[in-house]
Amino acid sequence: MLGDMMNQMQEMQEQMQKQMAEQSFTADAGGGAVTVTCNGAREITNVKIDTTQIDLEDVEGLEDLLVVATNRVLEQAAEYEKSQAGSMMNNMLPGGLGSLFG
Questions:
Q1: Residue 76 phi, psi (nearest 5)
Q2: Which of 5, 9, 27 is nearest to 17 (CA)?
Q3: Low-confidence ranges of the chain (pLDDT < 70)
């Protein structure tokens, strides 16, 4: 019984990781001057810089925008992962007990 439950948990976790990697999140900073995209596994997949909106001589400003956009997109991915993990827990527990975890 416990072994079956552990196998089911592992399968669900693997399925969730695959689903997370397929998700895409995008965030920007500076009104779209910098846009960063990541997947649900929190891997940065794209960075776009709109050179018409920034001063290329202001390296420090560009770095700041990159940090802000990256933090925003990673936060989106983390929130999504948190909601998926909660959903997985609700699905695993017997009727009504899933709500104990949020």
A1: -60, -45
A2: 9
A3: 1-2, 88-102
77 burial via Cβ count (<10 Å: 0-12, 13-18, 19+): buried
Q: Looking at residue 1, what is its pLDDT? A: 66
Question: What are the pLDDT digits (tens) for 70-95?
Answer: 999 999 999 988 888 777 666 666 65
DSSP for 3-33, written as a single string: HHHHHHHHHHHHHHHHHHHH-EEEEEETTTT
Domains of the chain: 20-89 (3.30.1310.10)
Residue 70, token pair as written in the block = 């990256």
Residue with tokens 């899933």: 98
Residue for token pair 């693997």:
14
